[in-house]
Amino acid sequence: MTKKLLYQFIATKNIQFLHKDINWYNFLALLVSEKLEGYFFKIISENTIIEKIPKQVRKILYISYKYNQVKNEIYLKEFENIRQKLLENDVQVFSYKGLFLITDIYKDYGVRYMEDIDILSSETDYNVIRCLLKDYNYQLLSINDSDITCHTFDEIIYSCLFVKRNSEKEIVPFVKLDISPISIVFNDIEISKYFNSTNLLPEYIFVLLCKSFYDDACEKSKVPSPEDGTLIKLIDIILFIEKYPKQTEYILKDSKFSNRNFTTFTQQCVGYYSRETSYEY
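The chain above was modelled as a monomer; its predicted structure follows.
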């Protein structure tokens, strides 16, 4: 099973893509690598396709779905608590990517894996938020492939996570915040017109989804191809386009965005994965 065939099964629900000779454990590994276990389980649980899948594989998919469900409910509640506390201090923050997609697009907490809570703030509010999070029992961390580093809240570090503690010695494994000032995402664009008093507008969320998809692919290759993109992020974008066609069309025609690497790459990938492929493996 290739990534392209997996995408086309998800898009069409055509049972022919689930060939009788498929290696289900290699297929499961592909789902995990593309962060699609929960979404795939949702699809097969809604029709008779589930009967074609070995019981043990169904069990693993169900566990992944329930894990996403529990974790994402915790994340959503934590974000609402933080947002309310920040509003009490006249600080506004915006959710995007996973948290936004789960509540606005998927409307099912189990289908979408979420690593952390992605939040944007204004430049002026960013340092205020850091101070407030310290009072809310969060620890400032930076994480790479080899280690985890704790930082003091006096350090100016943008690519960090805020991880909640139960106590001085225990870190809660679920709750991680990734907070960025809006200007660090696009420092050359006046973005004030892309949000109102309570929300980011769909146009800007679409730009952020495309950029996240492209950046993720660039981590795998300096010159990424459609095969380097993570499928769940591509599906995020396609479902977003289906819900907000006018807003995405506006961005794709806007000269500030239309020729950017991330928008051209996204359009290339949508075309690549949408082209029909034979059922051969």
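The mean pLDDT is 81.
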